[in-house]
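Technical annex B. To support the medicinal chemistry partners, we prepared a structural model of the target in complex with adenosine-2'-5'-diphosphate, based solely on the information shown next.
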Amino acid sequence: MTTTRNIPELTLNNSVTIPQLGFGVFQIPAEETQRVVEDALAAGYRHIDTAAAYRNEAGVGAAIAASGIPREDIFITTKLRNGEQGNAAEAFANSRSALGLDVVDLYLIHWPVPSANQYVEAWKAMEKLYADGQVRAIGISNFLPDHVDALLAAADVVPAVNQIELHPTFQQADLAAKCRSHSIAVEAYSPLGQGRDLDSEVLAALAQKYDATPAQIVLSWHLGSGNIVIPKSADSERMRQNFAAAALTLTAEELASVSALEAGTRGGSDPATAAFTQM
Ligand code: A2P
């Protein structure tokens, strides 16, 4: 049975709980998003991760509405567009309306954009949304250690999560440890390395041992490592396969053997320089 009961819940630093395994909709075209998210909900996912910049929040909202699943049973994350860091309250209102929700579960600053030097301003606006009860938790994404330090120095609310690129060949272990030391949960995006981390002998051997797929082994490694993880797939069979990874528990030695795949190769953009202000 693939039900939400199979998915562990993590407790964030403000006591809000989040299903540790969620479903990401980055790069899902707007016109396909409702169908894809309906499939994900049918597969059992109860945590959906979107962003204003993905331009598919309305499809996520339509799927939630069509599902008939009680609102409180679904955890929804969205993110502030880079070009709107000076305008976070209005940007949030637009996201909330596109999603058709009264309250968003988690709102993230999508990228620090150090060249714009506005993320502290954005955070202060998000702290207000949080204090108003419009969002149950606030956090950051793509923040490197320097950005985390600068934010914490100015913050009244410690971010609940930092969502970062994290997969076996690019683990950012120092950044993840730093976040955890400040009670900031680590959320892994591109958890499968955009599908490129799946071809390894270590994973193939573990997959054979557990009668699983390499993707399931990697997702089980994330869960066993304490990461929140948001794999994405447009394919309903792979969605189900990924969801079922929560049933698998690797030993400490097996977790270490996957961690040994670290290669220091970032697949996505470098947050030190990424701006995407058009996003
Ligand atoms: P698809 O949408 O065709 O299933 P990441 O989450 O690391 O960014 O990886 C997403 C990529 O990995 C997508 O290209 C997706 O392709 C692919 N993918 C997702 N789940 C699996 C799986 N279980 N096995 C193989 N590839 C997968």
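Notes passed to the chemistry partners:
The chain has ten helices and ten strands.
The mean pLDDT is 96.
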